Amino acid sequence: MDRLIYLYGLAQTEEAASQPLPSLKGFDGIEDLYTVSMGKITAIICSLDAEEYSEEKIKDRVNNDMEWLQEKAFHHHETVMKLAKIYTLIPLKFCTLYKNQDSLKTAIQSNEAKMLGTFAFITGNEEWNVKIYCDDERLKKQVSENNPTIEAKRAEISQLSRGKQFFEKKKLDKIVESELEEEKNKVSEKIHSHLSKFAIQGNVKRTWSSDVTGKQEDMTWNSVYLISKLKVEKFLEQIQQYEKDMKETGWQFQASGPWPAYHFSSFS
Amino acid sequence: MPLKESIENKDIALIDILDVILDKGVAIKADLVISIAGVDLVYLDLRVLIASVESLVQAQQESGKTISSEQFDKQREELTDATGQPNKWEN
Question: Do A171 and A89 belong to one domain?
Fold first, then answer.
């Protein structure tokens, strides 16, 4: 029976040797996780039945079996979280599978220098995610009341005949929309550059539509930061301050973490 | 309580987990079997994932439930209690 290797994360062998791996169930819920050391790097893995977890079958389930995806995504998340609490961990993507131990070894050995660099980069630091949401209607009102371009346009329209006013108002609505987007970006970018000062690195991510988030408010900003553990509290206090100051104007802030350093462990 | 602790103990939504574990994370590509772990992910989370998460969010809203890691644990505990099996999830 062929066995695949599911890779959760990589740790430094020195740390892995001094901190034994707790007993954790693997991806199939049956077998335990175990470690394989390759020089300075130790891989934390489990084995899986090659037939049951073939590429085709996994793809099919991801596409058609939402409950399965949810359960397995939680499993991956919880396992990697537990590991990241014990070790300085390079976390791997969901469903990173190798044909066998040899192919895993080859992959790790050929990237060893970069991985060691990543360990040095993430040691003592934490990944935090910040999502900014905005109540568009509330902000729109403010934008349209305090914007000179819009003010001028409105004054211009009031001088027109009724029929013309209708079309010009439509145009004005479009202007308000684009001014709103601009305002949202401007504010978010300013916050991002401020928050980045607390961080070693800050990256901007794609935002999600409200269909996906299930929230009424629009996701305006999605970003991740790698922060020294010593600065995390200050960083979060700053976010709390933003929250207090901007709540009235329709802004919401959602910080989550600490995450395993998913966004700061790139090898490419 | 420090801010960090209170945030750390908050429930995490599925979307936040997927946002992280699917969108980012390393894939060291040499001889991977599963391309989900590689480039194809970009397509996966754009087309399929969003659709699936949408339907999940809808289902949640209809049933009035939120999915959280904590609830997940609770359900698991209940199941364990019900079956009378030792809890394999505890370390």
Answer: no
